[in-house]
Specification:
Layout: H1 38-42, H2 45-60, H3 69-82, E1 86-90, E2 94-100, E3 106-112, H4 139-155, E4 163-169, H5 177-183, E5 190-199, E6 207-208, E7 212-215, E8 217-226, E9 230-231, H6 241-259, E10 266-275, E11 281-282, E12 285-294, H7 297-317, E13 321-325, E14 337-339, H8 341-355, E15 360-361, H9 373-379, E16 382-388, H10 411-429
Parallel strand pairs: 3-4, 3-5, 5-16, 6-15
Antiparallel strand pairs: 1-2, 2-4, 6-16, 7-14, 8-12, 8-13, 9-11, 10-12
């Protein structure tokens, strides 16, 4: 998930501490039996072994954002075998599949496909075969679980009251692949979308989520602070950009500690500082860069504005000039990930019935990590949650770690949750689809 060079989702692992689970005494929980127990089906050896084989093949051959050509080819080959129609290419390497009636209502289930630019350090039989690339965020597992759901749903296609849209998305790790999927117009009739992210610190079969904000909006900034270089022994004849940049960094930290509401979580982190190449030479310029995050668009825009003001102002105090850039096409701002309240009720009902209510944590703490699933949620009611895939008897590892090791026993749970969330949503909404004049189409 989340993408973003290796900074983005690295902190996911810090949000899953013990928090209250809902229980039978929770008066707002209503239990509606699932029409089909997809978990039992997903655990059958012929399904489970098939998923494991797919996951390991993808893991061995990781591809970065918008380069997932072989991963996309594998997905299409499996969909062809299952007899599932699809659209390709979408957003360069993306694949959009369809199961069901081909008519409304439409519900989407999504998996991201891209890997990270890092060397895998886990020694096992199916280690990455590509130097410097690794599925360190579990997207290989995400693809596998969605294919598992596709296999199960295809076998029960006659029971589907509408259409399930399978979204195999490229470039979550910084490339904003979700936005490109939306821009392609392939989800214009979808009325809800669900997404799963693996949780390497959660027990297998446990899910964590919450209603409302669960992940922060995220952006990047980079600034070039220019002065006048010269010999370090005579600083009076120079204009020192390193000193200016140091003051900028200190001042940027005041944006959160002195200007932000303490109850409105925000982050400004400078993670890049480059300048100079000798011990006795003041450089002409330095480059700094980092990330900023917030849970609301208002706070995010305020941070963006103040970051620019502080950098320019503090540089000027030190007689330097500064230029700031905030994004380019490869690193768009990611909005906050905000779970829809109605879908939250649907999730905890379905997950509670499928897994048992003691395995469903609906009070997980929000994280300052970011995820491009948020782009979907800006235009479609959406719901995002975390699924436990903790490996027993292993030292704990986080996402975006070269030592990440996930427990494949979690695969059936993800496949079953995808299938259950989608089919029960359609069952509930197949007679409640609103018709918006000029926009609604009943077919694909």
């Amino acid at each position: 998930m989340a993408f973003f060079n290796c900074l983005q989702l690295f902190i996911f692992s810090h949000v899953f501490f013990a928090t209250p689970f809902f229980s039978l005494s929770d008066s707002s929980f209503t239990s509606t039996p699932l029409p089909t127990n997809f978990l039992d089906i997903a655990k059958k050896p012929e399904v489970f072994d098939w998923m494991v084989k797919i996951r390991r093949k993808i893991h061995e051959n990781p591809e970065l954002g918008y380069e997932e050509f072989e991963t996309s080819k594998l997905i299409r080959a499996e969909l062809d075998k299952l007899g599932i129609p699809y659209k390709h290419p979408v957003a360069v390497t993306g694949v959009i599949g369809f199961i069901g009636t081909g008519k409304s209502p439409f519900v989407a289930i999504r998996a991201d496909m891209d890997a990270l630019p890092m060397q895998e350090l886990v020694e096992w039989e199916h280690k990455s075969k590509v130097p410097g690339k690794m599925h360190a965020c579990g997207h290989d597992v995400h693809v596998t679980m969605l294919l598992g759901a596709a296999k199960i749903l295809k076998e029960h296609e006659k029971e589907i009251q509408g259409t399930v849209v399978l979204v195999f998305q490229p470039a979550e790790e910084g490339g904003g692949g979700a936005k490109k999927i939306l821009d392609a117009g392939v989800l214009e009739n979808v009325s809800a979308i669900f997404g799963i992210h693996v949780g390497p610190d959660l027990p297998v079969g446990q899910v964590d989520s919450r209603s409302g904000p669960i992940l922060a909006g995220s952006g990047f900034f980079e600034a070039i602070i220019s002065g006048k270089g010269g010999h370090a022994a005579i600083p009076q004849y120079n204009i020192d950009p390193i000193l200016a940049a140091s003051n900028v960094i200190i001042s940027l930290q005041h944006l959160v500690s002195r200007e932000a509401d303490p109850l409105d979580s925000q982050v400004v982190t400078v993670a890049k500082f480059q300048g100079g190449g000798a011990f006795n030479v003041i450089p002409d310029y330095v480059t700094i860069g980092g990330t900023f995050r917030a849970f609301s668009k208002e706070s995010f825009q305020q941070l963006k504005q103040r970051i620019e003001q502080v950098i320019i102002g503090q540089a000027a105090v030190q007689r330097c000039n500064a230029t700031i850039s905030f994004l380019d096409e490869s690193k768009p701002f990611y909005p906050p990930t905000i779970n829809n309240g109605d879908l939250h009720e649907h999730f905890r009902n379905v997950a509670g019935n499928l897994l048992g209510i003691n395995k469903v944590n609906i009070h997980t703490a929000p994280s300052m990590g970011a995820e491009d699933f948020a782009f979907y949620q800006e235009v479609i009611p959406g719901y995002y949650f975390f699924l436990g895939m903790e490996t027993a008897n292993e030292s704990f590892q986080t996402l975006h770690s070269p030592y990440l090791k996930l427990n494949e026993d979690g695969l059936p749970y993800g496949a079953a949750l995808h299938a259950s969330l989608a089919t029960t949503y359609l069952l509930k909404h197949h007679q409640q689809v609103p018709v918006v004049e000029g926009k609604h189409h009943d077919e694909l």
